[in-house]
Amino acid sequence: MAECCCEQNSTDKLKIEGDMAGDPIWCSRCGCNLNLDEISLSAELKEELSEWMVNYGSWIDWDTDKLVPNGITLEAEHNKQGMKLAEKAKKGLTGKYKIKFSPSTSARMYAGFDRI
Questions:
Q1: Euclidean distance between CA atoms 65 and 62, whole angstroms
Q2: If we measure between CA atoms, which residue out of 75, 80, 82 comes closest to residue 57?
Q3: Which residues pair with 100 in a beta bridge?
Q4: What is the rounded CA–CA span in Å between residue 108 and residue 71?
């Protein structure tokens, strides 16, 4: 099991979620960011997950703190890719971890859809 901040110091429930920093693997119970190198995934999938994580937030212009043109579409594509990576991780970790995907919703927040 992966080391985390839970009472047991380990978890078998993971989520794949993008963020501005850290690795794309999190404990589903306590929210602790886990070290990707400590998860028994293939080197290829770890690289794919890392590249996916680097692209997190590309739908936001951080200098102006505004959504870029087509930002909602960019985020949707990022989520689609993340879901595919989560499915690959599920197959690679069957029997070891339960994995879920947590999609980004920041573009909708920037566009004001969360207020509707």
A1: 5
A2: 75
A3: 15
A4: 9
∠ CA 9-30-116, nearest 5°, is: 170
Copy the structure tokens of residue 60. 């936001």
Per DSSP, the residues of 15-73 read EEE--SSS-SEEETTT-PEEPGGGS---HHHHHHHHHHHHTTTTTEETTTTEEPTTHHH
Residue 94: per-residue pLDDT: 84
Q: Give me the number of domains the chain comprises.
A: 1
What residues make up the domain containing 36?
2-115
18 pLDDT band, cuts 50/70/90, is: very high
Q: Which residue has the tokens 């306590």?
A: 30
